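re: that chain from earlier
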Amino acid sequence: MLTLGTSLRELIHNFRHRTLILLKLLILQKKVMFYGHPVERLCTFQYSLVSLIPNLFLAMEDAASPNLDRREHENMVPTELRTSDRSSLMRYMGLPLNVFGRDAFFQPYLPLQQVDMLKTKSWLCGTTNSIVTQQRDCLPDLLVNIETNTFEFNDPKVERMVALTAADRQWIDDLVRDVNDGWNDDDPSRSLTMQFKGSDDYLRAKFEDYISSALSSVKYGDFLLKASKGDVGLIGTGDENPIANFGDAWLTNFKLTNAYEHWNRNTDPALFDICEPRHPCDTRPTVISDIGLRLAEGIHDLKLAETVGPTRDAISQAISAGSTGFLKAFEGVRSEVAARMARTSSSNSATSSPPPTAKPNLSDSTGTLQAQQASLETSQPSPRNSRTEYPPMPQTPTGQSHASKGLKPLSLATSAKPGPSPGVVGGVDVSAAGQAAKAALSSWGSFIAKKAADIKRSSTMPAAPQSQAPATTDVTTTEAPAKTTSLRSPPLGFRGGLWTLGERAGSSSEPEKSNDPGTKSTG
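^ sequence. v structure.
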């Protein structure tokens, strides 16, 4: 078989919906270039694409050169049709299309030495050299990278020409599903189900039906155009225009190609009587289903599983680790809050609950009152002890202290207490100790004031006249009767600017008697 070695299953599995775009570009005789490695896969894709057009392999004797076109001058409309003979049917339908005629060629692998051939109007070729893809004067309309499985259009107009319609997407999506359902990675050319559906022959028959229906629709469109001008009459025609389901832009531009001119010249105008002019899509697609197909295909073209896979795994691991740490932290905080709430509730309950009431013990109360009364009596000093004498009085010969006179020592008074009472710190009565310290300070103050007065009188007293008696100072303490101390002043005299002792300036040498009766005269 001529199609041996091709793999339509692999072609559709790789390019999915875009396989139909490649076919439309080939029929429009556009410039299509395949690029990538390996070379075997590069050529297989191109041969598989060419095999989609029925019987094209049988008419490629001069496809390698743009200057050769053996079928250019053919002008023979079929006069007979045998529906049981496939070759007769294909010939009646005008197939194969002359897509590699004049100014067109097919080179599965184009070497660098033949790069000038790219200046031709139409071609389908493949290369592994990036220099061929970068020729500015002969850029391809579509560059297919088989390594990245991407399509690169250099002309947006061409891209709009071959855009798929809703019926096209529904139809090719069914084929893609048939291929993927029985896909076998070990043997792409053979289905796992081993059924006719999804095989290469099944796919080739489907594309043959699509091309035949499209060509029949072109003839039917011409027929409707003539009928609208009144040249022919119409009876029982439908209102549906089949050209819109295939794409008005695509079929309109097809009429501008050399392939259409050759095909239209060698086919019957009533071609649509043999092949029904309708789109091969069985079910009419709805707007919602078409949007769903577009979204599904767009997501598949993004290759999220391959490009976002590592990022998705990293994000999943980060989220898992973060959630685990967050849960642990939350559990710790929750346990801490629960423990604090438990402690707070227990302390509140202990504070709010009243202490247990015990039955009062009359004997204990009486003893406590007696002890407090004894402590107060002890802490109040007697009139005799309200002032501390200085110096302290010695003990009596019998060894008795002031306690023998009716006073208790401080140590005995504090030791007799049954327990701590108000005003007692460390076993010492604070009030009693304060009064004793106050009395001691008062005694010391009186003593120091007496001595200071004596010293001041003896050192700083001024001279007095003879008729006056020397002043005396009595210092009386609270301890004993005050002692009277008489101080006399010696007679002073002034001679030669100096005061003399015993005489006065300008007086006799007779001593002067003192007015103090208790003193003796000095000679």
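The CA atoms of residues 454 and 460 lie 10 Å apart.
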